[in-house]
Structures are given as C-alpha cells and as structure tokens.
Amino acid sequence: MSDKKVFFTGGAGFIAAHTIPILLERGYSVRIFDNMTRGDRDRVNEFVQTGKVELVEKDVRYGGGVREAIRGCTHAIHFATVSINKSIADPHESIDINMTGNHNVFAAAADEGVERLVFASSASVYGDPQKLPMHEDDQLNPLTPYCISKRAGEDLLGFYQRQKGLSWNALRFFNVYGPGQKIEAYYTSVINHFIQRLRAGQPPIIDGKGEQSMDFVHVTDLAKAVVAALESEQANLPINIGTGIDTSIATLAKILIDAVGVDVEPQFNPRDVLVSRRAADITRAREVLGWEPEISVQQGMTELVKASA
Ligand SMILES: NC(=O)c1ccc[n+]([C@@H]2O[C@H](COP(=O)([O-])OP(=O)(O)OC[C@H]3O[C@@H](n4cnc5c(N)ncnc54)[C@H](O)[C@@H]3O)[C@@H](O)[C@H]2O)c1
Predict the structure, then answer these.
(1) Does the reported pTM lie above 0.85?
(2) What is the four-CA torsion angle of 38, 39, 41, 47, rounded to 10 degrees?
(3) 170 CA → ligand 1 middle, Å
(4) Is 79 in the pocket of ligand 1 (CB under 6 A)?
(5) Which domains does the chain have, with CATH numbers?
(6) Cα 85 to Cα 79: distance, rounded to the nearest angstrom
(7) For 174-201, how does the pLDDT look when each residue is reduced to its tens digit (9 = 90+)?
(8) Which residues, in sequence order, are CB contacts of 193 under 8 Å at separation 6+?
(9) 35-69 confidence digits (pLDDT tens)
(10) What is the DSSP code (8-state) at residue 250?
(11) Would the CB of 20 count as within 6 Å of ligand 1?
C-alpha cells in the first residue's frame, strides 16, 4: 500500500471529481476536506467505496480542523472556495472562506511538512488582459474579492516557501468546462444556456458581434495538469492552464449548433458590448509540467452535448 496521501480541500466539487480518479490510478490515497455546500455526495460516496478515499466534512475557515485533518498527508490540493458571483454579492463571506481558508491550509501544510501543495488560482487574476496570449509575468489586476483572494493566495504561498520551505504550484485555470459542471458557472454558463436553447429548437442569442472570447479548457485535460503540478520537479510558480486558443462566442455558437444538430443561425443582438478576450500562453505549463491539452473545443463540446442528451 502506497503511503502517498493527498489532503484535498474542495475535493467533493466539479474539478476534483475528474482529478481523484487520476490520483488513485497513480497510487495516492485521498482525504477529501469539504463542507459539502456545493459538493456532490453521490460521487464522493463512490470514491469512498474504493477504500482509498475518505471524507472529512469540515470547513476551511476553521484552522484547528484543517490542521488536524492534514496530519499524515504527504501532499495537498487546495480548491475550496466560493465563486466569483457569490464573492461580489457577499464579499465578507468570500474573504472569510477564500483568504482565511487559504491561510489555514497553507500554514498547516507548511507546518506539517507536506511535500507539495497545488493551489487552484485563476485566469481572473489578470483582470481584463492588455494583450494576448496572457503570460504569467504580465501585470495582474484582480477585480473582485474572489480574484483578489486568488492573487493574495499566490503571494501567501511565496511567504510560506521563504519562511518554512513549502513547495507549491499555483495553477491559473482558464475557462474550465466538461461533464458535471454546475450550470450557473460564472464564465462558462453560456455553454449550457446555448445548449438548452438549441435543444428547444431556438437560436442562440449573442450580444454584439460575438467577438468576446474565452480559452475553454476541458476538465479532463485540466485534471492531468493538477496531478502533474503535484509531481513536477520544478515548483513555486504560477502556471497558466488553458489551451492557448481563444474561441469567440460566435464560434462557440456555431460549434454547439453543429453538435446539437439543429438547423438554426445565431441571432445577433445589436448593442455595444465590452469585448473581452482570453487566451493563455501555455509555454510554462509545457516546460514545467510536460503538459499538453489534448481535447479540442470542437471535440469537448460535442462530447458534452452527447453526454447531457
Ligand atoms: N471551474 C472553473 O472554471 C474554474 C476556473 C478558475 C479557477 N477555478 C478554481 O478551481 C477550484 C475548483 O473549482 P470547481 O469548479 O471544482 O468548484 P466547485 O464549486 O465545484 O467545488 C468547490 C468545492 O469547495 C467546497 N467548499 C466551498 N466552501 C468551502 C469551505 N468553506 N470549506 C470547505 N469546503 C468548501 C464546496 O462544497 C465544493 O465541493 C476552485 O478553487 C476554483 O476557484 C475554477
């Protein structure tokens, strides 16, 4: 039996559900630490039945519980968070969970001597990018309590590295999508919205010319990057995880029309929209993690439509 054990906050959530099978395959056992506010209990129960996964149902806001649960774990993945929309609606709760929670996890990991911690940061630390593709050394301009806490989390990891020798990687996830995602996801909810309209035989409605773009990265690819970041030789870096390809909303609409297989054209709503675009420079992910996204947006979206039929 392997003695590699991952302390996994937010381990009952969407991205974790795709990461845990890879961890098990690679010989880790997993201690999920999640307060189950958004967790998928059925999925967690399936994992627990393998005998290699346990659930500690607690909150990252309480440092004592974190410290107790991290004991005996060799690695840590920190995902527990409240989302962007909730952070705008309730900054107090967001700061509490995202800032205090980050600190509780990082301090405990440093004190308990975990070998590597992987932190889920976000592309939103860049704010509206000045240029594409977005590089890790570009200026950061986090705009909401959620994004501010992600950036602060990266800085705090630097502190515990210098102070206590904590080894970490912070992954700046771009627009993650895939099976099991909650429909209200901040950026990617547009995917579900379009699919629902298309299934009802209605055209997707696009504001402006649909030039706004996102860098959609499939959760299966992303989960591989998380595990690679847990094991990479080089560490203590923020690393972009995207595909490097910006897909406009107009292109997304076309891909989904084909995937659903309906004979409609997107409808454009003529109004001024702020065109924001996103694409990651993934040179560092390639070099440091040996990681390469394998699922194209076309393929990933088509499979998503099939899976949710
Ligand atoms: N999904 C994306 O597009 C995306 C993009 C960028 C960054 N991220 C980051 O990736 C990570 C995982 O995202 P996800 O999409 O799987 O989110 P998710 O909401 O599906 O999972 C988060 C989990 O954290 C748990 N949680 C929330 N508050 C908690 C608390 N106080 N204590 C303990 N557990 C708590 C929830 O119950 C849930 O199971 C998050 O840190 C998120 O900010 C996600």
Answers:
(1) yes
(2) 170
(3) 14
(4) yes
(5) 5-175+217-241 (3.40.50.720), 178-215+244-280+294-307 (3.90.25.10)
(6) 17
(7) 999 999 988 777 678 899 999 999 999 9
(8) 204
(9) 999 999 999 999 999 999 999 999 999 999 999 99
(10) H
(11) no
